[in-house]
Amino acid sequence: MKKLKRSQRLVDMTHFLLEKPHELLPLSLFADRYGSAKSSISEDLAIIKEVFEGEGMGELQTLAGAAGGVKFIPRMPADEASSFIAELCQMLEQSDRILPGGYLYMSDLLGQPAIMEKAGKLIATAFYGVEIDAVMTVETKGIPLAYATAGQLGLPVILVRRDHKVTEGSAVSINYVSGSHKSIHTMSLSRRALREKSKVLIVDDFMKMGGTIRGMVDLLGEFGAQVAGVGVLVESEVADVKDRLLHDYVSLVSLGEVDARERIISAHPGNYFAGRAQ
Amino acid sequence: MKKLKRSQRLVDMTHFLLEKPHELLPLSLFADRYGSAKSSISEDLAIIKEVFEGEGMGELQTLAGAAGGVKFIPRMPADEASSFIAELCQMLEQSDRILPGGYLYMSDLLGQPAIMEKAGKLIATAFYGVEIDAVMTVETKGIPLAYATAGQLGLPVILVRRDHKVTEGSAVSINYVSGSHKSIHTMSLSRRALREKSKVLIVDDFMKMGGTIRGMVDLLGEFGAQVAGVGVLVESEVADVKDRLLHDYVSLVSLGEVDARERIISAHPGNYFAGRAQ
């Protein structure tokens, strides 16, 4: 790489750090990359740190010593988080989302990578400081959110399938009760997918009674793995919370009554700001 | 936002541009954000442009006039592309991927957001300059690649389902022949998901005879939409290419013989560098 001026180095380093969240990058990597002294690199990083942390875009952690370096932990600023959640609520309240049976069409929202990216950053922010080894979801609609979250955390995604596929090798299957309809379903996870004692963040697009997520919790039990947390994009309010199969989770949006006759949907912020996210 | 120095502005602007690929950002947005003159912003952008384009990280397009602004088009530098493809081949050649029936376990690769991010950037780079309105894939394993590609292109993802779900509203279903086994399957797409005359980039994780992708092409036909291109992570070589149901595509990796007895897999670069990607 040709010798860059400080202004140019700052652009390149910002790009480099943003592409590798949660990765420990030794100062020597930058020193070699730019043919600069480590002291100059430290000054550059101090400027980047000031901007990132000043704007609430994330933390730049510096670890001293031979094994040291710098690590970027992305976060979403609180004001951006609340305006994003408000925007989500507004989009969900569009009356043409109501489908027969009172279901809500959400595929257009879930289909926008920029929205998923922000939602994933928000869930990653909510679990800041929690020790996590992997992000888990069950196919299909939670997948983009799980990848966005895992990308922000620098972690792999473990994908639970609805049935056992030949391309997954030997697998563990469990049955679970879907709370809303009390119907029995199966989910299955490749034996290779998860190491024992892993700490796993469960992510999904939608939760009502929590039966599907409860199924993933049980599946983790089968692998001797642990739940590090649960994050959902939308929780649907239930008549009696005691009926819910799961109580400890972070939600971005809470969906109230869907009045299919009057075509009114009410959505308001989930427990993101109320709960452990603080 | 408090007044920033040039060095600080460069960090913030780089972050801002990287988060919004393909979005036209007016200079006044930056001028307001930093309380700076447009002339200073133009100078900042010139520095960023020089670094981005010098390193092959993408293009910074400047559009003059009242409706003008700046737009970041991400690209992957050619040297990074070839080392990434070589790395993919190496990972795919690990003999413990072989499953009964000669299938290959790929879920660990597909489960790494950083790998999907790079693969998506590569496919986006391959279709640089092609007019595209949306990225389409069929559940399940192609989803992360489709989102990564669409994210780089600033486009929505259209997700085809294997069966018709209540949460999708009215849908169009078609039958298709899966080439490898000549078996009949169904795929289905919500009527709301796709506008007529849309130009669609089809993305998938794996292609052998091309039957699944052919199904998506047929589905596009049902919606009066057009194929803008096809990108796959891995193509599997076939004995006679004439049997393939699809000939115009971009692949990152080409999978040769899988010798289940000797436990040997051969993978080499796909047509990314050979074909239209140039």
From TrEMBL, chains A, B:
GO terms for biological process: negative regulation of DNA-templated transcription; negative regulation of purine nucleobase metabolic process. GO terms for molecular function: DNA binding. Residues 5-74 form the Bacterial purine repressor N-terminal domain. InterPro entries: PRTase-like, PRTase_dom, Pur/Pyrimidine_PRTase, PuR_N, PurR_Bsub, WH-like_DNA-bd_sf, WH_DNA-bd_sf. Keywords: DNA-binding, Transcription, Transcription regulation. It comes from the Bacteria. It holds the Pfam family Pribosyltran. Residues 114-236 form the Phosphoribosyltransferase domain. The keyword DNA-binding applies. Belongs to the purine/pyrimidine phosphoribosyltransferase family. PurR subfamily. Homodimer. This is Pur operon repressor. It comes from Paenibacillus spiritus.
